[in-house]
Every structure is written in C-alpha cells, then in structure tokens.
Amino acid sequence: MEEIKTVSTVEQNGSELLLTELEKQGVEIVFGYPGGAVLPLYDAVYCKAFHNILVRHEQGAVHAAEGYAKSTGKPGIVFVTSGPGATNAITGIADAKSDSVPLIIFTGQVATKALGTDAFQEADIVNITRPITKKSFQVNNATELPKIVRTAFGIAMSGRSGPVVIDLPKDIMSQTVEKPQAFELQVPTGPDLPAGAVATLAKRLSKAQRPLLLIGGGVAAANAASEVRQFVKKYQIPVVTSLLGLGIIPADEPLFLGMGGMHGTYAANMALANCDLLLNIGSRFDDRLATKPTEFAKNAWIAHLDIDPHELNKIVSTDLALVADAKSALQSLLAADFEPPAAKKWCQQIKKWQLDYPYRYQTEVGTIKPQEVVEEVGRLTHGDAIIVTDVGQHQMWAAQYYPFKHPRQLITSGGLGTMGFGLPAAMGAKIANPHTEVVLFVGDGGIQMTIEELAVIKQYDIDIKIILLNNQALGMVRQWQDLFYKKRRSQTIFNSQPNFITLAQAYGIESLKFNPNNWKKTLADVFSKKHCVLAETQIPQLEEVTPMIAPGSPNQAMMGID
C-alpha cells in the first residue's frame, strides 16, 4: 500500500491549486475546450503556461485523451465546460468505461448558489455520468481539491482502470485557498493468486491434452505482456487473443493463433471450440468473442482470471474464477515451474487449421483491396507502427492483416464501437508517442463524425498518416443487411459524399488519392513525409469482412472460410 500525503502550499485559488496538483501527478498535457464556466480554470492555464491541446469538439477531447491513455497506460486528462460542453463528452466517457481506459474529466459547472435552478448551461453531469464512470465527484470547497484529485487518480488507475469525472462549480475555481486539507490516501495493489489456486492451475495445465490460453486487453493494462510471452514460451501453450489483446503476443509467434471471435481466424475459433482446458486472463468473454456463451469452449475446464470480480461468471460459466492482477498471477504461474502439457497432437492439429484456412481475399486487376492496403502498410512500417482505427469494416481488416508486435499498439474502440473515435484518438496517440509512426485507418462514414479535428492536427503539426478507405457506404451495417436482411440496404449507401481531398486541403492537410496502377509507390511516398497526410483510396462497395460468425452462432460455425 502506498501512502500519499499533502504538503503545505502558498495561497492559491481553486484553479491554480488544481493545476499544481496535476503537475504533482505528472500530468504534462490536457485535452480541452474552454467555455464560460471554466474561465477561471483557463485563466490559470494561461498564467501557468499549462499545455492544453485545443480540440474542436468535446467528444474529440475525450477520444484524444483515450488515444493518449491507451498508448501509454497513463491517465488522459480532459477539461470541458458546463452544460453542453459536459454532455458532448459523454460518448467518449462511455467508450472509456467500456474499454477500461483511465481518464479524468474535469467539467465546468455553474456557481454553487445557482445549482439546481436550471441556470444557463447547467447540467447535472455528476448523476448523468454515474453509470459510465468509476466515480463522479462534485467539488464543494476548493480546499478539497488535492484530496479529490489524488483520489480520482487512484480510482482511475487501480483495479480495473476507467474514467472519473470531477465537476467544478465556477465559484470554487476562483475560491482562494491558503492551505488545502491534510489527508492520507492509500492506493490498493491488485490481489495475488492464492497458493492453492496456483497449484490447481498448474496441475490442470500440466495434464491437459488440448490446452489454450485466451488473452485480453486486461493483460496490456496490467503491463504483463512480458510475462505472457514467457509463459507461452516456457509451457508451449497455444494462445488466442481478443481484439484488444492484439500485439500482446507477436504476430510471428508460432503458438499464436490470432484473434478469436466474430471475425477471428479459423484456427483461433476452432481451438476455442475444441480445447479441453481454457485459461482466460484479462478478457471479459464479450459477445463478439464468446458468440454463443452456452456453447463456448463447451468441453473445456475453464479458468478465468480478472481484476474485476463483476466479470467472473457473468457471461460464461467457469470452473475456477479468480480475482487477480494479471502480472502477479502470471509471475506465480511461471514460478510454479510445472511440467508442460503433452500437447503435440493438439499443436499439430492447430497448425493444420492455420495452413488450411488462413485469412484470405481475392485480388482484382484495376481494383485496390483494403486488405492489401493494410498488408502494405504493415510492410512499410515493419509492423512497428501504432495503428489507430475508427469503427467499421476497416477496423476488422486492420485487426486481421496488420502484423502487430507490441502491446498498446492497436488503438481502437472495442466495447462501445464508437464511430468518430479514430481521428482524435490518433492525435492523442501521436502526441504521447512523438517518435513512433502513427497510422489511422478510417472509413468515409466515421471520419465525418469528428473531421473537425483536422484543424487541431494542422495547428499542432501532428504527424499522423490517415488512410481513408472509401466505399461510399456504412460498410459493416450494409454487410449485415446483405447477410441477414435479404440485401435490403436501408440507409447505408451514401449517394452524396464530400470531396475528401478538397476538404482535407481546406484544413491545410496534404491529401491525395490512390491510383490503382501505382498506389504502392504513392503509399511509400506518404510514409516518407514528416507531416500529416490524408491518403484516400476507393475500395469496392460490396467488399466484406470474412470470415464471420453469425450472431448467436457458436465459434466453430464460421462463414466465408473457403
């Protein structure tokens, strides 16, 4: 347990005290948008020369903070004003809650005397956000600020990480404070695996004939990628990841089967269906992975390790459910030094699945396929780029065809599936990782939801490469209509679209369009530049993401594998 105490400070107002506390917490950058209720706060930002990225919409601020947090593990910080400023942030907050992203969102609020009077730009953001945060606070006295801020950091980062909202009435931000409240804060550490559980797991794993490891985003959140890799190598157990687990195991690891679930590999899904032991660490068995919970790993003994007790036995019934920190749990299993399972035949069967049914697509002369664009980006970046996606078909193509090597390398909206996430999240990821190539894959639908953030990219000279895959449709929804609604394409085809090249240029962003005859050379030229470039490519409108598992079908019932 770590003990934190306040120290005496010179006289400050609430806004100055807040910025001082953020500096103590190591905050270097904030994503925000000012307004009347946060004028005292932004005056302090000006006077202290605090680094604020001025976004163009509050949703963009939260998604940018998510990109920052997802790529670093550090909490992302957001400043927004009251009323519509706060409510505009709600989608991003819900997205962060779903994907366990540590954020602290500071919202402006009307003065305390005006609370509850329907004052101008008043919204009860504390109660509005309670279901989509780990905790929502309202500050009633500026002396409480250090305690609340430090508590918020502890909540956001401990256990299953997530967003915290701190609501700041305007008069509190101007209130003068000579000495903040003294307090002690104890930050809990994650629970360890009980010795008996380690012994049980070791015995079960050693005797399994068809063992399988399932890894989710919780492993990256626990900074346990190194331990997972050691575990796989030491015990020679095949491994599958969720979407948010991609990169934890390198794509070229022989025992890595790929992503499981709705658009996962055939080998991964067949292994999930046929294993006799499944050890899940840090994945919540969501419906895109465990597509039919009652049939999921039906013949397996299942152990589930998760930092969040609410995820245990919520969707899939397990034989051993343990609340544990992924890093310490894996360290305990490595130290157990048990006999690796005798799974030679199992590994041979998995290899056959991999060879017989890899991801595949048909090329066409004179046509640029999205899958080959992703593959070429992987080749040009040597698999080392941070890949950001929006939501839709392009998200799945990126997950399927980019050769991920590192944890925190795929930045995407997994649980909530938020269109508009990609562009601001890419900004945040690049700001956090200025020396790493950041590539955004985005569709023509999603980019228009937060396209105003191109102005931010220009203002701050943020070097991201934007690959716009344009099919003039809401491709994933259209695909479902074709498969499950007899091709009734209701409201999914865009009959009118802007000229994205001209639009990007209006924001001052260099832009170009791929020609099918020389697009690979053009793409290489894009990556030779040291500033943002938007590269648009027209892709077939009816291109589909395959393979696929129909909703409600078991993992082994895959379509489109031939």
Automatic annotation (TrEMBL):
Single GO MF annotation: magnesium ion binding
Domain Thiamine pyrophosphate enzyme N-terminal TPP-binding span(s) in chain numbering: 13-127
Keywords tagged on the record: Amino-acid biosynthesis, Branched-chain amino acid biosynthesis, FAD, Flavoprotein, Magnesium, Metal-binding, Thiamine pyrophosphate, Transferase
Coiled coil: none
Domain Thiamine pyrophosphate enzyme central: 199-333
Enzyme's top EC category: transferase
The keyword Kinase belongs to this UniProt entry's keyword annotation: no
Annotated InterPro entries: Acetolactate_synth_lsu, AHAS_TPP, DHS-like_NAD/FAD-binding_dom, THDP-binding, Thiamin_PyroP_enz_cen_dom, Thiamin_PyroP_enz_TPP-bd_dom, TPP-bd_CS, TPP_enz
Cofactor(s) needed: thiamine diphosphate; Mg(2+)
Textual note on the cofactor: Binds 1 thiamine pyrophosphate per subunit. Binds 1 Mg(2+) ion per subunit.
SUPFAM superfamilies reported for this sequence: DHS-like NAD/FAD-binding domain, Thiamin diphosphate-binding fold (THDP-binding)
Pathway(s) the chain acts in: Amino-acid biosynthesis; L-isoleucine biosynthesis; L-isoleucine from 2-oxobutanoate: step 1/4; Amino-acid biosynthesis; L-valine biosynthesis; L-valine from pyruvate: step 1/4
Catalytic activity field: 2 pyruvate + H(+) = (2S)-2-acetolactate + CO2
All copies of domain Thiamine pyrophosphate enzyme TPP-binding, residue ranges: 390-534
Pfam families per UniProt: TPP_enzyme_C, TPP_enzyme_M, TPP_enzyme_N
EC number: 2.2.1.6
Highest taxon, organism lineage: Bacteria
GO BP: isoleucine biosynthetic process; L-valine biosynthetic process
GO cellular component terms, semicolon-separated: acetolactate synthase complex
Family: Belongs to the TPP enzyme family.
PANTHER family (UniProt xref): ACETOLACTATE SYNTHASE CATALYTIC SUBUNIT, MITOCHONDRIAL, THIAMINE PYROPHOSPHATE ENZYMES
Protein's name in the database: Acetolactate synthase
Gene: ilvB
